Amino acid sequence: MKKVYLETYGCQMNVSDSERVASQLVSNGFEIVAEQIDADVVLLNTCSVREKAEQKLYTRVGQIRAAAPPVGSGIGETPIIGVMGCVAQLEGETIFARRAAASGGNNNGGIDFILGTKAVGRIVETIEKALDGRRNFADLDKREDDYDWSVSAAQRHSRHVAFVPIIEGCNKFCTYCIVPFARGREKSLPAAEIIRQIELLKSQNVREVHLIGQNVNSYRPTSDAGLENFRGATAFSCLLRAVAATGIERVKFTTSFPRDFHADIVDALDEHENLCNWVHLPVQSGSNEVLKAMRRGHTIESYLEKIDKIKSSAKSIAVTSDIIVGFPGETDKNFEDTLKMAEYCRFDSAYIFKYSPRLETLAARMENQTPETVKTERFLELEKIVRQSQSAALQKHLGATLKVLAERASTKNIDELSGHTTCHKIVNFKAAGTLPGSVVPVKITAVKTNTLYGETSE
Ligand code: SAH
Ligand code: SF4
Ligand code: F3S
Questions:
Q1: 349 occurs within a structural domain
Q2: How many helices and strands in the chain, by DSSP H and E?
Q3: Ligand 1 atom 5, closest CA
Q4: CB within 6 Å of ligand 1 — which residues?
Q5: Interval between CA 185 and ligand 3 midpoint (Å)
Q6: Looking at the domain assignment, is residue 445 inside a domain?
Q7: Are 257 and 351 part of one and the same domain?
Q8: What CA–CA distance (Å, rounded) separates 289 from 78?
Q9: For 414-423, how does the pLDDT look when each residue is reduced to its tens digit (9 = 90+)?
Q10: How far is residue 324 from each of residues 351, 358, 373, 448, measured CA to CA in Å?
Q11: Closest ligand to the CA of 173
C-alpha cells in the first residue's frame, strides 16, 4: 500500500481540498501517513496569497529533498513530490524551472508533478502516473462535471467540526489579490446538495459546520432547489435559514464580503439559536481613498453601517476582520483613518497583513509602493489597537459561563480539552469527564492573549 503525506497551507478552502483528496486516496487503496519521512508520495497544498506563503513551497521542497538526498539525475528520487493548490495553479510548469534553478540545476528540481486547484479530483490517476515513472507533468485543467465534494469522516480535520464549501472562486478582483487568478470565477454549489451533506454530517454526530467560500454571501445558485421553503432577502440568507432548519447544533460561515453583506443575515442570526454569534467581515482599510484603489466595492461609511447592524443584535455577535497596511499610495492620513476605524469597530480579533505585491495584480504595478519600514511601523501601531479590543473582548467573559464545543485534547495540558464558543473564541478547560463532541457550559476563570481558560462541572 503506497503511503501519502499531505501538507496544507493557506485558507479553509485548501484544508477542505486536502480533506477531499485524502478521502479519494484512501478509497482507492492509498494510506495517509502522519510523518513525511514515512511517505512514498508527499503532496504540498500551497497558498500564494502573500509572497512569504509562496516561498514556503520552495523551502519545504528543499527540506524534504535534503532529508532524502537525490539519486543520480534527480529522476526517480523518493519520495515523489507533487504540488497542489494556488501556487500550482498560478505557476504551472514554471515551478519545475524555478525550483531547478534554486537547487543547482537538477532537471526537475525535485518536484515531480503539478496539480491545479480544479484538478484535485484527478489525484489518484496523477499519483499513479508518477508511480509509473512519469515526471514533470502538470494538470491545470477544469473540474469534472460530476466532481464529488464530499469528505469521508476519517479525513475531516476534526471529528466534530466540518467544512462545507458553498461557493468556490472569486469574481471581485480586489487590486491586490491573487485569489481570482488562482481559483477562477465564482461558482455556487446547489443548495439541495449542501443541505443533504449537512444532514449527513449531523447523522454522523458532527456538531458544527462551517459554510466556506471566498465570499459566502455572494452565494448565487443556478436553481432554488432546496431553498423553496425558506425566505430571505438574498440567496445566502435563504441558505442560512435552510441550514439552520436541519437542526445541526452549530452553523458558522466565512468569509463574508462587506459589499454583499445584507442586513437580513443578521436577522437570520437573530432568529436561529444554531446560527452562531460570529461574523468575519474583512474591511482591509479605514480610508475611502485606499478602499477605492483596492476596488473593494464598499466605503467606510457603508462598512460601519453593517458593523452597527451586527452590534445592534441582541445576540452579542463577535466581529473579526482582515486589514492590510501599506497598500501602494497609503498616506499617513489614510493610515490614521484605519486606526480610527479599528478604534470604532473594536474587533474581537483582526488579522493584520503587510501589503505584499503579487504578480499579475494591478496593485503590484502601481508606482507609489510603500517602503517595508513604513509597513512595519504601521503594522505595530495598528496591532496595539487590535490587541486592546481583542483583550477587552476576552476579558468581558471572565466569570461568565459559556457554552463550548469540546473538540479535542488541549495541546498544552493533557488534562484539559480545547474547543470554541459560539462567538468562535478558543477555550481550554478542565475536562471533568466531558466527552469530546459535546457542548458543555464552561465557567471562565482566566484569560490569556488569545485564549480563555475555564472549568466545567459536566
Ligand atoms: N475573500 C476574503 C479573503 C481572501 S484572502 C476577502 O475578500 O476578504 C485573506 C486575506 O489576505 C485578505 O482578506 C487580505 O487581508 C489578505 N491579502 C490578500 N492579498 C494580499 C496581499 N497581496 N498582501 C497582503 N495581504 C493580502
Ligand atoms: Fe481576494 Fe477580494 Fe476576492 Fe477576497 S474578494 S478573495 S480579497 S479578490
Ligand atoms: Fe491562499 Fe489560495 Fe486560499 S492563495 S488563501 S490557498 S485561495
A1: yes
A2: 13, 19
A3: 49
A4: 49-50, 176-177, 179, 214-215, 255, 257, 282, 284, 322, 324, 353, 355-356, 358
A5: 14
A6: yes
A7: yes
A8: 52
A9: 889 999 999 9
A10: 9, 14, 15, 25
A11: 2
74 Cβ closer than 6 Å to some ligand 3 atom? no
Q: How far is the CA of 357 from the centre of ligand 3 (A)?
A: 15
* Tens of pLDDT, residues 24-46: 999 999 999 999 988 999 999 99
Take atom 2 of ligand 2 and give the residue whose Cα is closest. 174
Distance CA 389, CA 281 (A): 16
For the chain, the domain total comes to 3
> What's the CA gap between 55 and 358, in Å, rounded?
12
pLDDT at res. 433: 79
Tell me the CA–centroid distance for residue 190 and ligand 2, in Å.
22
Which residue segment(s) compose the domain that 23 sits in?
3-139
Q: Using a 6 Å cutoff on CB, does residue 211 contact ligand 3?
A: no
Pocket test for ligand 1, best of 167, 178, 353, 370 (most atoms within 8 A of CB): 353
Among candidates 409, 402, 395, which has minimal Cα distance to 424? 402
Bridge partner list, 418: 408, 428
In the numeric block, which cell numbers belong to residue 424? 468562535
At 452, which CATH number? Answer: 2.40.50.140
* Residue 145 resides in a domain: no
* Contact indicator for 88, 117 with CB cutoff of 8 Å: yes
Quick check: 115 pLDDT over 80? yes
Report how far residue 124's alpha carbon sits from residue 27's, in angstroms, rounded to the nearest whole number: 10
The reported pLDDT for the residue numbered 65 is 84
Ligand 2 atom at minimum distance from 171 CA: 3
The string of pLDDT tens digits covering residues 190-211 is 999 999 999 999 999 999 999 9
- Put the strands of the sheet holding 161-165 in their side by side order: 161-165, 208-212, 250-254
Q: Confirm if 169 and 11 have CB atoms less than 8 A apart.
A: no
- Cell 525550483: give the residue: 99
Q: Examine the domain organization and report whether 172 and 315 are in the same domain.
A: yes
